[in-house]
Amino acid sequence: MNAIYKEEAHDRLWIGTRNGFSCYDLARRTYRNYLSPAQPSHTAGTDVLALAQTADGTLWVGTINQGLWQLRRPGTAREQLVPCTRPAGVPQGSVESLAEDRYGTVWAASLAQGLRRYGPDGRAELPTDQSMFLLYDRPHDVLWASTRDAGLLKLRVLPDSLVLLRQFVANPNGVDGLSVSYTWPLLLDRAGTLWIGTIGGGPHRSAATATPAEA
Questions:
Q1: Which CATH superfamily includes the segment(s) 86-214?
Q2: Which of 40, 43, 74, 149 has the fewest CB atoms found within 10 Å of its own CB?
Q3: What is the pLDDT of residues 127-181, one digit of tens each?
Q4: Residue 56 burial (C-beta neighbours within 10 Å; 0-12, 13-18, 19+)
């Protein structure tokens, strides 16, 4: 299992695996599989790393080496699973994480091409092209991006651009420093604390609110 997302409105779990992804209906206790070897058109299966649902109900699916997919109108008679075909805005290689901002823009993190904005504008210019995980803090309009080699990025989302507010890198002696610069999973709890998982440096935590200089 690579990813899991709960669709609260319909009491469903979406599960990403090395052989496609599945929808588990919690009330009926039934599964439905997608992009799996059980389907004739996907005999080899698709390695699914990331799942995210946008405000319009579309489920976005990030994969290894097979780009991005969209499951439109999931669970309805008009359900449609289609690949994203706009090459200017679709990451190649592995899509590690997905997030939607308040403007309806979908951001995709990839190891090969960094942080990508789904749309004609293509990629954003950031300190690294090896993004790992995305977390969008809607109340503060901040996008957090963990990376493989550049620590943690704090980003301001604008309607047509992305601004780097701050970069947290390895600095064990600093107040806000990380023990290593290889960061991965992120979690924002109800108290406003940002929890940061790392590779080789254990968990970290930090206040997630923006400072006046970053507003």
A1: YVTN repeat-like/Quinoprotein amine dehydrogenase (2.130.10.10)
A2: 40
A3: 677 888 999 998 888 999 999 888 999 998 887 777 888 888 888 676 667 889 9
A4: exposed
